[in-house]
Amino acid sequence: MTRGRFVALEGGEGAGKSTQARLLCDALAARGLEVVLTREPGGTPLAEQIRSMLLSEGDGPNLRTEALLFAAARADHVARLIEPSLASGKWVVCDRFVDSSRAYQGGGGGLPDEDILTLHRIGSAGLLPDVTLLIEVDPDVAAARTAVRDAAGSDRIGGRDAAYHARVAEAFDRFVENEPDRFARIDGNGSPEQTHASIMSVIEGLEAGSS
């Protein structure tokens, strides 16, 4: 059986990842592909429990504990959902993956990138997506979107200060510069339909490579 394809969507707050992940899954399913839509942290019962711990309001864990919890959630997610789905030939579309840990706990929080990648090698055997779609939006666009999204309150990590999120954005930019074969930049400033069209142009190349 042909192994499925693994697509991750990344970006900062307000990039529209969740919307685009749903649109992508709908488009792939319309082409007759079996698709699994999932997210991080989360995707399995245990990982969803860890998600609640990580994102709930309050002081939360310290930075290193936070990174360990993200890695633990991902390890369960990969073992119980992502790898079995790929092995059965399904496409997996994931709203965030390891590059979010690298950007948030690494770029934003200051942990060494190698430490985060070591946790990923231990917990998830170093699994990486076939393509990572980095949805980029201007800061003012992101701020307007998050103001609407978080009208009832933001989660603990999303609510960190602007300087933290600027470091996150800089980290994502470095990843693309250093690993251009794995990432695709997507302009997320336009309408959802425009962003989706840009994503599909990348995915069509990935589909061709799997045929």
Write the layout of secondary structure elements.
Blueprint: E1 6-10, H1 17-30, E2 35-39, H2 45-55, H3 63-87, E3 91-95, H4 98-108, H5 113-124, E4 131-136, H6 139-149, H7 162-178, E5 183-187, H8 192-210
Parallel strand pairs: 1-3, 1-4, 2-3, 4-5
Helix pairs in contact: 1-8, 2-3, 3-5, 4-5, 4-7
Describe this structure in words.
The chain has 211 residues and is an alpha/beta fold. The protein has a single domain, classed as P-loop containing nucleotide triphosphate hydrolases (Rossmann fold). It contains 8 helices and 5 strands; from the N terminus they run E-H-E-H-H-E-H-H-E-H-H-E-H. It has helices spanning 17-30, 45-55, 63-87, 98-108, 113-124, 139-149, 162-178, 192-210, and strands spanning 6-10, 35-39, 91-95, 131-136, 183-187. Strands 2-3-1-4-5 form a 5-stranded parallel β-sheet, sandwiched between helices.
